[in-house]
Amino acid sequence: MQKSRKLLSDALVSLILEKGYDEVSIQDIIDRANVGRSTFYSHYENKEQLLLFGHEHLRALFLRDAGRPLDFLPFYRHLAEMHELVRKLLSAEKSERVLTRSLEDILQGSICRLYAPRTAPEEGALFMLRSEAAAAALVRLMTSWAHKGMPCSPERMAEESTALLQRVLADERAAASGRTRKE
User: Fold this and answer.
1) Under 8 Å between Cβ of 57 and 130
2) Which of 108, 104, 5, 106 minimizes the C-alpha distance to 49?
3) What is the number of other CB atoms lying within 10 angstroms of the CB of residue 111?
4) pTM of the full structure
5) How many CA atoms lie within 13 A of 1 on its CB side?
6) What gap in Å lies between CA 95 and CA 100, rounded to an integer?
7) What are phi and psi of 82, to 5 degrees?
8) pLDDT value, residue 37
9) Confidence band of 179 (pLDDT split at 50, 70, 90)
10) Which among 95, 75, 91 is positioned nearest to 147, based on CA atoms?
């Protein structure tokens, strides 16, 4: 089972590098992986699911224990190592949309798990809105960096991402303390 998934994932990556994501069909993938259509569909519903599975390790780069801040450096280093694939994926509208949506979900979940305040329901709802906005901004920063040829080091981008997140969270903490003082 793992072998089939690896074959399919490797086939997708090599085809993306050759043709671009939008031009790759499921038939191309199964031909390259030398597996049957039923094998593909026993693991995935479509190529988007395969794409996300192939990048499931990205989720692990952001998963942290509560109390530890998000560390963006491993993620940026990974993007830099995979620059050609990242460029191809982000140049295809469908794959960019799938990947950015997935990254936003991963980041928002991590932000909520690590930083959510223990407050009244209204404050929790506001935090959820801020965490969605922060995740979207972080993904936009990441994709812009990749689109522009990665002009800064991964270390610098990790610092920028951390600073951006801290500003959003500082605004949240400041707003919460301001509301507490007024009450």
Assistant:
1) no
2) 5
3) 23
4) 0.81
5) 3
6) 8
7) -105, 30
8) 95
9) very low
10) 91
